[in-house]
Write a structure and sequence with these properties.
Keywords: Magnesium, Metal-binding. The chain is about 35% helix and about 25% strand. The chain is α+β, with helices and mostly antiparallel strands. The protein folds into two domains: about 150 residues, Fructose-1,6-Bisphosphatase, subunit A, domain 1 (Fructose-1,6-Bisphosphatase, Chain A, domain 1); about 120 residues, D-Maltodextrin-Binding Protein, domain 2 (3-Layer(aba) Sandwich). It is globular.
């Protein structure tokens, strides 16, 4: 199988089945021994993350043996695997449970994120919601679409929103000085939030429900799919310093916006606060 719509459909079906069997049965049903921390006490990983990633890796191996797999948990164990995105022609990037803190604490704001890269460029992205079994996906050059388990599909546009300066800014990931500077400019925004879940934040931007989303860490499993989906929906994605985003990047801050104008408006306020 090659990088075709049939492959992407098969991949989505695998994600849905694994979520039904590994993620949802454990939601609000985790034992304390099934939750662990990684880099900090609130940087969590659960048995659902690990089992889902293992099975997704196996599924990619069946569907497309030539593809490399870069999973969040595998990289946690072996950081050198990140280089596969740049080295291998085809790479499938997996976030088995995005928003693990929410998931482990019983909040229904989590998802599965899948990105497929070809020669270091994202060509497919998936933002899947296991709770309602629906998803937003995009193939490069083909636009973004929302689809339900019942088969209802519609094209989405980020340009149809109200155009308000409402956005997602992860203040807890900024330095103390940056937090103060952003706080001092709160009156220039309509509203600033954080869902602690890139999957649902990008779903909101791509549908124009919010204006922008700032990412303070460039982890490809969090952002490669979302950046493509926002761009294919009519929005924009770039580093706040102006560079075009690529999933091989590891430093900087990524800003996605529902429109080019929203990108300009958000940048004009965030850049001074972040001292970029």
């Amino acid at each position: 199988m090659k990088l075709t719509p049939a492959f992407y459909e098969a991949l989505i079906n695998e994600v849905r089945q694994i979520a039904r069997e590994e993620i949802m049965p454990r939601f609000r049903n985790l034992e304390t021994t099934q939750i662990d921390s990684k880099t900090a006490p609130d940087d969590l990983v659960t048995i659902a993350d690990k089992r889902s990633e293992e099975r997704l890796t196996e599924a990619v191996g069946r569907l497309l043996p030539s593809a490399a797999v870069v999973g969040e948990e595998a990289v946690s164990d072996d950081p050198s695997r990140l280089s596969l995105i740049d080295r291998e022609d085809i790479c499938v990037i997996v976030d088995p449970v995005d928003g693990t803190w929410n998931y482990a604490n019983g909040l229904a704001t989590f998802g599965v994120i899948i990105a497929v890269t070809y020669k270091g460029e994202t060509v497919f992205g998936l933002l899947y919601d296991p709770v309602l079994d629906d998803w937003i996906c995009a193939e490069k050059g083909a636009g973004s679409r929302f689809q339900t388990a019942a088969g209802h599909t519609r094209k989405i546009s980020s340009l149809e929103g109200p155009g308000l300066l409402t956005g997602m800014v992860p203040l807890y990931l900024l330095s103390p000085d940056q937090r103060l500077a952003v706080g001092a400019r709160l009156s220039e925004f309509n509203r600033l939030n954080s869902l602690r879940c890139s999957c649902h934040e990008y779903r909101l931007v791509s549908q124009g429900r919010i204006g922008f989303c700032l990412a303070a860490n460039l982890k490809p499993w969090d952002h490669a799919a979302g950046a493509l989906i926002v761009e294919e929906a009519g929005g924009a994605a770039q580093l706040i310093t102006g560079e075009r985003y690529r999933p091989t990047m590891s430093e900087g801050m990524l800003l996605t916006a529902a429109s080019p104008q929203m990108m300009e408006d958000a940048l004009s306020r965030l850049r001074p606060a972040l001292q970029v």
